[in-house]
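Deliverable D5.2: sample structural annotation.
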Amino acid sequence: MKYVVIIGDGMADFPLDELGGKTPLMAANKPYMDKMAGEGFCGKVVTVPEGFSPGSDVACMSIFGYDPAKYYTGRAPIEAAGMGIEMGNNDVAFRCNLVYLAKGGTVMGDYSGGHITTGEAHALIKDLQNEIGGNEFVFFPGVSYRHIMIWKGGLWTMKTTPPHDITEKEIGGYLPGGEGAKVLTRLMERSQSFLAHHPLNKRREAEGRHPANSVWLWGQGKKARFPSFEEQYGVRGATVAAVDLIKGISRLAGFDAPYIDGATGYLDTDYKAKAAAALRLLENNDIVYVHIEAPDEASHNGNVADKIRAIENIDREVVGPVYEKTDDDTRFLIVTDHATPISTRTHYACPVPFIMYDKGARHEGCQSGYSEQSGDTIMSGEEMVKSFLTGQRR
């Protein structure tokens, strides 16, 4: 038996008046997902346990079958693992976004620094390391706007806020708070002074693009450790993903998570390249996870059309090709990690829909297709993964 898990990040949503009371998932043309829903097993999964914030870190840990209450230490350490950063036991990792602050640096204009390219971002992070980094604070470049800062022997109990949660809001009430917060705020202020005059940002402004004029530090935590997926569930796996968060969960779980050319973690990602990579990896692994960030990015941008298009691209260019080129002895899990409602432009914790589908078998599933209304059974992430691998339904 081969197993394929396809995660459409942030696909779940609320009904929208402009879609006639439908959600983007309901409105999207997705024949492969709907076929699987009609002939498979539909249910809902609680990916965000009570007491946790509804981030992709917690939610995707659940989808990989790891209980966040047992293993979660923070988002940034997971991403650091995905980037191959070696952390000491006393180190603290912070997610370091390159952002655009508007209105004189008082408003979160764009959490992605004007969707800065990876090449541009690497140049800025390298120069920031030379300017404000050192032995205590070390900056590591990632993908596009997503980077890591390590505070050697640092503090980590302060409160921080994801920048994508405060788009177009004044940042004053969302700056770090608690022990060590002044250190972070000072680093962010120093980054603003330096980046405001950086030639790359001057060029971006001249071209009519937003400058990446500040870093935003959040998601802190200490070194993460997981038991391997093979130890937990008895199968060997790999992951197709662009973002370091998912690569980090994968590598901590003992999965291979290779670089995929054209995978951007944004709306312009190469869906076909991800499908092709999944098929290659499936040859030498029992299970392959495929993560697509695009629907979540569309929601953060508040763009309904882009979200529908992203869902349709996943169905047509990922689910379809993998379905068509796998044997009947293949089981699929289609799932989203959390809701990201267009109306709020941020993550929302609620049970989210999944489909389990055996290619070589047919069952009486959800005839209305795959949506937030699919299925009555509710499982935890661990229960869902165990049910998926064993074929036992409840």
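Annotation notes: The chain has a mean pLDDT of 96. The two ends are 21 Å apart (CA to CA).
The annotation will be released with the project's public dataset once the embargo ends.
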